[in-house]
Amino acid sequence: MFVTISPKRLRREFVRKIKELSGQNLQLCYQCGMCSGNCPAASNMDISPRRIIELARLGLEEEIANSKTVWICASCLACTVNCPRGFDLSKVMEAIRLLTLRKNIDHVRPEDISPQERCELPQIAMVSGLRKFTG
Amino acid sequence: MSLAYYPGCTLKTKARNLEEPAVASMEVLGFKLDEVPRWNCCGAVYSLAEDDLIHQVAPVRNLIRAKEQGNDELVTLCAFCFNTLKRANLLMKEDAEKRNTLNSFMSEEVDYSGEVKVVHLLEVLRDDIGWEALAQKVKLPLRGLKAAPYYGCTLLRPREIAIDSIENPTILAEFLKALGASPVDFPESTRCCGSYQVISSPDDISEYARPILNSALSHGVEALVLTCPLCDYNLAWGQKELMKKQSGFTGIPLFYFTQLLAIALGLGPQVCHFELNYGSPESLLRERNLLS
Fold first, then answer.
1. Percent of chain B's residues with pLDDT above 90
2. Closest to B196 (Cβ–Cβ): which among A41, A74, A81?
3. What is the pLDDT of residues B35-93, one digit of tens each?
């Protein structure tokens, strides 16, 4: 993926909010790709976990907002425990999701889950899914 | 001996086949799992955002319930609840500012600062009972059963709350050995099953399950041994889909570790609620003369 980097495209407020919500120092990452290599869902993602960090610190809000990556992340923490820099990517993924969800834009509508599925799903699936995908 | 116990919502409904064999087995082993009074939903997932303290209230209230009863340990069984409660406990122990905010917010409760130790039932079996003592209680050894531990995510990640080595966990294999089974090691035993993605992308769940199940099958695994109701749901759902998509895919019976514990202790199928399992895993046990 080709991206244009320029001061004009840098969304400082976006970077500040990600840092504040995640508590992570985005500059820690040295782009080794252990996160992408260990992610069980990376092949479904349009932007790899490693690139999400790079785009986030460059303030490229639009690229991240148009990507489905953060909605595919299952917070399994395979990235977190394998990062040689002690960077917790799961918290950055959460911060990016929350920037959307807190605008009252839900990723999942409970009413779209069929009554049969609602009946069959274990409670931890419903509670965790709705916690992660609704504001 | 009585142990303070937090069951969580799923174990009271969909996963009675995880809880009931555990309660019965622990009685045989001399322990009573004593539910903490007025427990509430733990929230299922730990809040990852720095400013999201309101979602810490639910798990911390459960820890306070345990403290009020004079307990210094709280036993959990659901892998999701274990993760959420243990991480919330760590936050209360280590982050003074957030601890003060949460204690002030819950002014009707006693102050809490992480005094209760959150443990998983597997840790009780390993650390309080011990594998040798457990093996001595076995009445019906699961001889020759090639069962593979499937750990999933939440008992092992993040590192600070792991019940065993995150790279090379052995706790479930040691447990199975104590029951007389022949545990099989396979490389995808800690790979994520897709978790709550089943809510937003149910069609992708079989693709999460595929590498796990294929790897297990290629290692000669006869049954997977689980600790988490969501892993159970996703691996069952994934199998159903893979039967349609992948020619020659045979599927693998799924058991909760507590069901195998109850069978090995001679409690019989009546406490195991196999009717709640996917497929009919008990037929494998019947083949091995492990069911009366």
1. 97
2. A74
3. 999 999 999 999 999 999 999 999 999 999 999 999 999 999 999 999 999 999 999 99
pLDDT band at B292 (very low <50, low <70, confident <90, very high): low
Residues A81, A112 share a domain = no
Chain A residues whose beta carbon lies within 8 Å of the beta carbon of residue B158? 77, 80-81, 88
- Domain B2-121, CATH among 3.30.450.40, 2.60.40.10, 2.60.120.260, 1.20.1050.140: 1.20.1050.140
The strand ranges marked E within B30-116 are 32-35, 73-76
Examine the domain organization and report whether A98 and A112 are in the same domain.
no
- Measured CA to CA, the distance from residue B47 to residue B49 in angstroms comes to 6
Q: Is residue A21 situated within a structural domain?
A: yes
Whole-Å CA distances, B105 to B37, B48, B102: 21, 19, 5
* Residues in chain A closer than 8 A to B203 (CB atoms): none
Structure tokens given for A100: 């959307």
Report pLDDT digits (tens) over B270-284: 999 999 999 899 999
Q: Which of residues 15-54 of A touch B (CB under 8 A)?
A: 20-23, 40-41, 44
Contact B160/B46 with Cβ under 8 angstroms?
no
* Cβ atoms of residues A82 and A38 within 8 Å: yes
Contact residues on chain B for A121, CB-CB shorter than 8 A? 198-199, 233
Nearest Cα to A73, choosing from A57, A50, A56? A50
Do residue B199 and residue A133 have CB atoms under 8 angstroms apart? yes
pTM over 0.90, yes/no: yes
CATH number belonging to the domain at B130-287, selected among 3.40.190.10, 3.40.50.11810, 1.10.3720.10, 2.60.120.620: 3.40.50.11810
